[in-house]
Amino acid sequence: MERAKYTLILLLIFIVQIDINANYSSEIYLFYDFNKMKEWKALIDQLESIKDKPNSLILELVNYQYGYIGWCVGNKKSEEAEIYLALAEKNIEYLEDEQYNLSMVNAYKSAFYGLRIGLDVWLAPFLGHKSSDCAKLAIELDANNPFGFIQLANIQNYMPSIFGGSKSDALKYYLKAKELMEKNPGFIKEEWNYISLLTSIGKVYWDMNDLQTTKLYFEKIMQITSQYDWVKKEMYPQLLKEINTKK
Predict the structure, then answer these.
(1) Is residue 20 part of a domain?
(2) To pair with 16 at 20 to 30 A between CA atoms, which of 99, 129, 141, 229?
(3) Is residue 138 a part of any domain in this protein?
(4) What is the DSSP string of 122-155?
(5) What pLDDT is attached to residue 190?
(6) Long-range contacts of 114-117 (CB under 8 A, 24+ apart)
(7) Which long-range CB contacts under 8 A does 43-48 form with residues at least 24 apart?
(8) Per-block average pLDDT, block size 10, for the chain (247 residues)?
(9) What is residue 244's predicted lDDT score, i.e. its pLDDT?
(10) CB atoms within 10 A of CB 167
């Protein structure tokens, strides 16, 4: 009996270790692909509840929180966004105290300043420069970190031109991030961040009235994944309609 109990304890420890050390990117990719945000939220809640997580898992969780918060902001779920942004900021503060992967830490700090501006545009004069400084520091710490360039691109993309925003500068940074991601298969295989990046690039080309290049990017996305309805059922048909009206 004692031996059986000991075996069971070892098995439970092993299961917990598998859970802690697992990589959940494939699951998140499917949730992103099929727009299953309830499942996305459930997974990040599950990961948040794990005690004594390794720093690598905390950083992975922050990425998923970042994606969920962005979805909340885009869908006017401000209260939900505030809750998860506070959790994500606490995780990033912990990783910063641990001096763990400071390039990524600063990339997410930049993103979270930007999301706070998305929740309250009046914070832009106070947080805009902090977001920019953190993105630049992320790149200074690791020139091969695509997420630093994505944040610089987001700043330029969403900042009004009257305040210095530039679609052409945004595109430059997005394309640099794409170049860096595509050098590392781990950044692009079943990776929601890569699909999101391609979508952003396509949208910027659209904003710059380069409809044919936008079409190429949207078709590239649909070749990678046929389930991404935002492009497949919304943006791509709208784009084709606009192209046809200009013939």
Answers:
(1) no
(2) 99
(3) yes
(4) GGHHHHHHHHHHHHHHHHHH-TT-HHHHHHHHHH
(5) 83
(6) 114/151, 114/154, 114/155, 114/158, 115/66, 115/69, 115/70, 115/73, 115/81, 115/85, 116/85
(7) 44/68, 44/84, 48/87
(8) 40 36 76 91 95 94 96 94 97 98 97 94 91 97 96 92 89 97 86 94 96 96 87 93 87
(9) 92
(10) 17
Closest CA to 181 of 157, 150, 225, 151: 150
Asked whether residue 13 is domain-assigned, the answer is: no
Per-residue confidence (pLDDT) for residue 61, from 0 to 100: 96
Strand intervals (E) in the chain = none
Residues in contact with 135: Cβ distance below 8 Å, sequence separation at least 6, in sequence order: 106, 107, 110, 148, 149, 151, 152, 155
What's the CA gap between 191 and 29, in Å, rounded? 6
pLDDT at residue 165, as a whole number: 86
Q: What pLDDT score does 116 carry?
A: 95
Q: Which structural domain range is residue 168 located in?
A: 27-245
Q: Which amino acid is at 105?
A: V
CATH at residue 88? 1.25.40.10
The predicted structure's pLDDT at residue 163: 80
**What span, in angstroms and rounded, lies between the C-alpha atoms of 81 and 112?**
11
- What would the pLDDT profile of 3-20 be if each residue is shown by its tens digit? 444 333 333 333 333 344
- Number of domains within the chain: 1
Query: Which amino acid type is present at position 85?
Result: L
